[in-house]
Write a structure and sequence with these properties.
The protein has about 325 residues and is an alpha/beta fold. The protein has 10 helices and 16 strands. The chain has 2 domains: about 110 residues, 2-Layer Sandwich (ornithine cyclodeaminase, domain 1), CATH 3.30.1780; about 190 residues, Rossmann fold (3-Layer(aba) Sandwich). Helix 1 packs across helix 10 and helix 2 crosses helix 10.
Length: about 325
């Protein structure tokens, strides 16, 4: 059989809103992130291999992703991989997708879905940590979902910061570079996006204003985090799934080890946000920072891959 190969161009056609809508439809349709199959980690010479299966009644799939820390120095992407999409009832292959491009679209869509339920329609100041593919993807996803008045980009490499600032300006946003520590910028933000490979906190969590939202996507290991204990302990915390977060999210596990946060303090998962099952006040009315932590899950790849396949069908 001739297996369709869906590359980056095919995946980008779906766009941030299409990916977000596919995720929301899956959760609205009853998908439970807590029962999604676990991700498998395999150490290999080049870095780490991630094997991420997922299934529904209609489709099944698996992503094999590589995380190669040495690749950027070779001018190669840090994230590599492929996604195999299968028919659910027969398990016959339907398509092979570019796994890196799928991840670049899927992760910002997950964040944007949380932002849809955690913020108002206008964001006065977006602070964006990171200058890699996820930073670009998150900027596009947020702009597709919200009106943004101003963007501050913070990164370690000045030329990459400048490039992302210019890209944001070309999209019609007032953008500028920020100081590396982000102190002044975070203190005036109503949305902070953390899209880095940092293993240590990027800023002082005490500076985040009440009512602001922080989204962290860069780490998926228990010993790495982009935000500090102060932010986590003073925030209303949401996750993709409690099971995944309590297994992989150092942003939460480190504060838990310090005794400053507990599993019971998680306010809800992404399905709770989408279906409105959060008890008490609506999340947008919470009078303290809101923190959404994602580590990446297989069901998200499956939902977006299936949407890409449907859109590519003749």
């Amino acid at each position: 059989m001739n297996l369709p190969l869906l590359g980056a161009d095919d995946i980008e056609v779906l766009g941030p809103t299409g990916a977000l809508d596919a995720l929301e439809a899956a959760l609205s349709g009853g998908l439970d992130p807590e029962t999604s199959p676990a991700r498998h980690h395999v150490t290999v010479p080049g870095g780490e291999l991630l094997i991420m299966p997922a299934t529904t009644q209609r489709v099944t799939g698996v992503k094999i992703a590589g995380v190669a820390p040495g690749n950027p120095a070779r001018d190669l992407p840090r994230i590599t991989g492929s996604y195999l999409l299968l028919d659910g009832p027969t398990l016959l292959p339907l398509a092979l997708l570019d796994g890196a491009a799928l991840t670049t679209l899927r992760t910002p869509a997950v964040s944007a879905l949380a932002i849809r339920h955690l913020t108002g329609p206008v964001l006065r100041h977006l602070v964006l940590f990171g200058t890699g593919p996820q930073a670009y993807g998150h900027l596009a996803a947020v702009l597709a979902e919200r009106h943004v008045e101003r963007v501050t980009v913070i990164g370690r490499t000045p030329r990459r910061v400048t490039a992302l600032v210019e890209h944001a300006r070309q999209l019609g946003v007032d953008a500028r570079a920020g100081a590396a520590h982000g102190t002044e910028e975070v203190a005036t933000a109503d949305l902070v996006l953390c899209c880095t490979t940092s293993a240590t906190p990027l800023f002082d969590g005490a500076l985040v204003p009440d009512g602001a939202t922080v989204v962290a996507v860069g780490s998926h290991t228990p010993d790495a985090r982009e935000v500090d204990t102060t932010l986590v302990s003073r925030s209303t915390v949401f996750v993709e799934s409690r099971v995944a977060a309590l297994s992989e999210a150092g942003d939460l596990l480190i504060p838990m080890a310090e005794g400053a946060f507990g599993a019971e303090d998680i306010a809800g998962n992404l399905a709770d946000l989408v279906t409105g099952r959060i008890p008490g006040e609506k999340p947008v009315a919470f009078e303290r920072p809101r923190f959404f932590k994602s580590v990446g899950m297989g069901w998200e790849d499956l939902a977006v891959a299936a949407a890409v396949h449907r859109k590519s069908a003749p």
